[in-house]
Every structure is written in C-alpha cells, then in structure tokens.
C-alpha cells in the first residue's frame, strides 16, 4: 500500500486556483464537501508556501486557560501571533468554529466572530501576509476573499484514491468505473474506509466492493440507487 496520497485531479485544480488567488488577494477561502480533501489541499499549500497551518487543536489548547466566552478573542490572538511569525497562515475547519458561535441559539455573542475576522483580513492586507480559511468563514471574510471550491469527485479522482489505498494486486482486480457508476457520490473518507476494510479480503472484486457499500448503507450508494429507480 502506498505511504503517501497524491492530490486527486479535483484537489489539484483547487490548489492551482488557490495559488493564483493568493497572487491577487492575500485572503482566500477553500470550501468543499466533507471528505473532499480540504485539509489535504491546505497542507500541500502550507508546505509549498511556507505558511503556518492552525487547526482546531491549536484553538482548543489556547482556550484551556481562557474564559469560555473569550473564544473569538482567543481565535484572533493565535492567528495574529502566527501571522507575525510566518509568511502566511492557514486556518482549517473554520466551519466547526462557526457552528459554535453562530449555530448555537443560546450563545450570547452570536455573530461576534465577524469582528476578529474583519480585523484579521485587514491585518493580512496591511502586512501583505497570506490568510487562508478552510471549510468556511464569517461573512466578513467571504466579502473580501477569493472563494475556491473542490468540485465533486469524478471517476479519475475515485480511481486515484482507490489505487492509493488498496494494495496494487487488489486494486487491479476492480472495475472502478462500475463502482463509480453505482456510487458516484463517494467521498474521500468513505473510499478510504472501504479500501481499508476490504484490503485483506480475498478475492476482492467490484461486486464485493459494491456489496460492502450496500452493507453499510452508504449514503452515496443509496442516493445513486434512488436515482436509478
């Protein structure tokens, strides 16, 4: 099994668009469905451009000594500190943070995340530092950023992921086009989990792969089948 996963065609297209966007505007947003590979694309961008990547883990660690209602100020502080130390900063899983401060009706500071987001955008422009949001962003960011999306996976994307996650002798036995035709909505997480589950099953063929998807009631498979009836 391969040790590293190369970007799929859809992910490469998004990365190229991000590269170009950042030559025009220091602020960008990468969006995509769950399992589309947003984090993978952002990690590659961070590596290429020598940018610091912040995750939810960084925010959680910073929040341990803070008041629970200082979430927005803590977010602003750790991003500003990172911007001062790097050529740019990538913030992953911002949609999760948004769901906390904007999706909870009882949260007393609803939409206050807009304020530090606006401050961070202005700081990035003033200092010519790159600032990339992953997964989502407050409206203040959306109004200022180039928004780049990862398109739905095609047969080429699924083929690359399956051949990466399966041993070569297993992958070559599959009719991936047949699997994709029955379940075109598979995302990266579903493909990885299926391949790992089936990697040591012998003999493995396309019918057995599809049967596994049926057995776990994969939403991608169910949607595809519903469209065929």
Name some characteristics of this structure.
alpha/beta, 5-stranded parallel beta sheet, 229 residues, 5 strands, elongated
Overall description:
There is one protein chain. With 229 residues, this protein is of the alpha/beta class. 57% of the residues lie in helices and 9% in strands. Strands 2-3-4-1-5 form a five-stranded parallel beta sheet, with helices on both faces. The longest helix has 16 residues, at 9-24. It is elongated. The mean pLDDT is 89.
Summarize this, please?
This protein is an alpha/beta fold. 57% of the residues lie in helices and 9% in strands.
Indicate the topology:
Elements: H1 9-24, E1 27-31, H2 38-49, E2 52-54, H3 56-63, H4 71-85, E3 88-91, H5 94-103, H6 114-127, E4 130-134, H7 139-142, E5 146-149, H8 155-165, H9 168-171, H10 176-182, H11 188-198, H12 206-215, H13 219-227
Parallel strand pairs: 1-4, 1-5, 2-3, 3-4
pLDDT < 50 stretches:
none
Number of strands: 5
Helix-residue proportion: 55-70%
The largest sheet, given as strand count, sense and whether it forms a barrel, is: 5 strands, parallel
From the alpha-carbon coordinates, what is the Rg to the nearest angstrom? 20 Å
Order of SSEs: HEHEHHEHHEHEHHHHHH
Whole-number mean pLDDT: 89
Number of helices: 13
Query: How much of the polypeptide forms β-strand, as a percent range?
Result: 5-15%
Head-to-tail CA distance between termini: 37 Å
| Classification by helices and strands | alpha/beta
